[in-house]
Amino acid sequence: MEDYDAIVVGAGPNGLVAANLLADEGWDVLVLEAGDEPGGAVRTAEITAPGFRNDLFSAFYPLGVASPVLRGLDLADHGLTWVHAPEVLAHVFPDGRSALLSRDPERTAASVGSFHPADADAWLAEFALWQRIRDDLLEAILRPFPPVRSGARLARELGVADALRFARMAAQPVRAYGDDRFSGDGAKILLAGNALHTDLGPDQAGGAVFGWLLAMLGQDVGFPVPRGGAGELSGALVRRLAARGGRVECGRPVDRVVVADGRALGVRDARGGFVRARRAVLADVPAPALYLDLVGPDHLPARLVADLDRFDWDDATIKVDWALSGPIPWLSEDARGAGTVHLGADIDGLADFANDLACRRVPRTPFLLVGQMTTADATRSPAGTESVWAYTHVPRGGTWTADRLRERADEVEAALERHAPGFRDLVVGRAVSGPGELQARNRSVDGGAINAGTSAVHQQLVFRPTPGLSRADTPVDRLFLASASAHPGGGVHGACGANAARAALARHGSTGGAYRAVIGAALRAVYR
Fold first, then answer.
1. How is 191-214 classified by DSSP, letter by letter?
2. Closest by alpha carbon to 232, among 449, 370, 58, 7?
3. H/E element holding 119?
């Protein structure tokens, strides 16, 4: 019988972060991954043409480079190098105008100021606020809720009046916040477009804080990419873990967390083998998969099982990857040097897009997020060429045949062709991935949902993944939720895995008995 201090189910970034933090404390750790390679949604492969490296899921990592969790792992010592496109992001309007987000805040201010002169200084004031509260805000966001220490420091820095107004902004729709602060379309669209990196449209509560956070991070740390591909981030995490004695086994899916007397004892793999966990099981899988499939309702409070029936996924995704014989011939000068391009909508168009999704309609006009990967990292394709992707969202649950996917990909190409005439002439290879294909590559991308659950306010903080404690602890002793279904949610920042590792360490620390007694009592109150 195999025997380890901790079993981590899933070798996505959160699982690998959790494994590393436990190994740092001397724990003997085994990571079991169902897929053929580690990384989850942080992987790279040649899927369009030879020599073109395509990130299969996520690609740009502002939260990754800013996260105190990932920074603390010193991944540069294990081969990770961050690189940048000349500019961070351009949002191209349907009429051809564009707004630029730059690592030079003065350039961003000049861009938004071209839409309305007063917006330049207003934008710089937002960035000055970010600089004041950056470290404490990131700590407050990424640590378990409530963030007592970082929250107290944040409140002291802001003062009562500004703290109340900042909290109001955090709850606002991004359109409302943009209208409060700015007069021109440029600043407003940079906020609203960044908010749609989640599943929150311009008029949904809570969107403002996501748009503001990504816009400020873009000027602070950029939207960097790992040199060589997203998989290099995962590779660095695996190499760091191996240096500390941890192991990753791929192609070994887990089909059961073994529970007895309310305690996780280990896992059973798909071949029927049992692996004992002396101290903890940590699961980097979506919450419904952990609780309903791996644990089973018989071991859970009925209230939690009922809550999981109301778990809200984010929208499904369609992604198109291309190998191009040359750079995209954008009409917009801003777009030519930007790693990320938003395309297809003004703010009302973003609202129409979000409303179509809410009404379970395939949006008539797709809003596109485009990644120019060779522009950001010259190693991604042969000299003079470009590795590019674009993704857009569609409602969950539709049937996407090969023909239907091809038609949607053609519509995406037509949108690019309108703003970059000659785009289609450059295509030497294309790969189209619908919700089913994305899930086949990574079973945690359930139905094409890339954020492991909605970012809407009803499923954040103490409501993530269900009403509870906003912690990694579960009703099963020694079992911890380490995926993006847990607080603080989606994005490659490692915080969900780090929070699970810290909870496991607290459970087995010198006050572990008291810790579990308090957590257990709180969970019983939540689920009674």
1. HHHHHTTTT--TTSTTHHHHHHHH
2. 58
3. helix 118-142
